Amino acid sequence: MNEITKEEQRDVQLGLMSYIDRVCREHGIEYSISAGTLLGSVKYKGYIPWDDDIDMMLTRPNYERLMEVLMGDLPEHFTLLYYKSHTAYLPFAKLYDNRTYFISELDTLNKGTGLFVDIFPLDSLPENKVKGEQFKKKVRTAVTKLVSSAPNGLSYASSEKRLYFLVKSLLWLPYHLRYKVRSRVLAEKVDILMQKYNDEEHKFCNFVWSPPKRTGYFDKGIFTEYEDIDFEHLKLRKIKNHDVYLSELYGDWRNPPKKRAVRNHSYYRWYWKEKND
């Protein structure tokens, strides 16, 4: 097996992001890099030393437009993981490089996929945060059913902690037995549910499958203006008012903790399917 080095991993991710950026510019689709990727671009003009992935976010209309374009045509070595085009068990899209794959003791949900860029839709949330948290809880329950419908749904975990993984597996067992093999129907239900408040006038939005309370309520106004920013050797797009977003997400984002400020995928080992010398 040809294990992918950290440098190669980043080259692949940047290739994916470069393609997405080009498609968005050609079709007039606005997006912003997000989470640790946005933090890294502002502080380091690239990856945060302890981060290992690329995230991006789009308002729901732009997200749907991007999905339509990516479903229409892709380079041969790219695959869109999105429930309308492939079997998918998460409520967001991934564009991955199908020349690569991973081995993980914890995540078998996405088995067979490769190095990726996460693409998150932003949907409306009620101003009343009690109501908003109830809605987010309902979304999380629906996503649990979706994830549990996967053949390996019980093996999925987004944590490096084995105890957490085992406890979650036990809690999800009833869902797995009930909802297995119904993934397409469940994915569509989740997608519709996430858009519940989009037809109403609400001030806030977020990726609504987000942790309770911790990553909150973004004013929609910050998603109306965008600008270019350097990220490694690329020039990508970001929201102009990144301070409001990063402050809501990380608090004192200018002085984040040295480690664990963002999600890390250290429980993955990446490999080339075929390595051309």
UniProtKB/TrEMBL annotation:
Pfam families: LicD. Residues 24-251 form the LicD/FKTN/FKRP nucleotidyltransferase domain. One of its GO terms (biological process) is glycoprotein metabolic process. InterPro entries: LicD/FKTN/FKRP_NTP_transf, LPS_cholinephosphotransferase. It comes from the Bacteria. PANTHER family: LIPOPOLYSACCHARIDE CHOLINEPHOSPHOTRANSFERASE LICD. This is LicD family protein. It comes from Lactococcus garvieae. The lineage of its organism: Bacteria, Bacillati, Bacillota, Bacilli, Lactobacillales.
